[in-house]
Prior knowledge:
The protein is mostly helical.
Amino acid sequence: xxxxxxxxxxxxxxxxxxxxxxxxxxxxxxxxxxxxxxxxxxxxxxxxxxxxxxxxxxxxxxxxxxxxxxxxxxxxxxxxxxxxxxxxxxxxxxx
Length: 95
């Protein structure tokens, strides 16, 4: 299912839409399309503003074009409880 139609899913399926947007953002980043990555990450964050995966891919997008300040700002927005819970999968090392 395309991400465009995912945003129209019922509330119970918003997790699928979120995952679709994050995966599409990751693919955009892999092909070097920073603007598309940011747009897709923002769509994911509209569904869940606290999505760690969406925040990380958005931060990686900024980091990929040398904007490490913006990347760090995004990562700093991750709630402390999420950072502690995900300490083993540290997302800070890529900057």
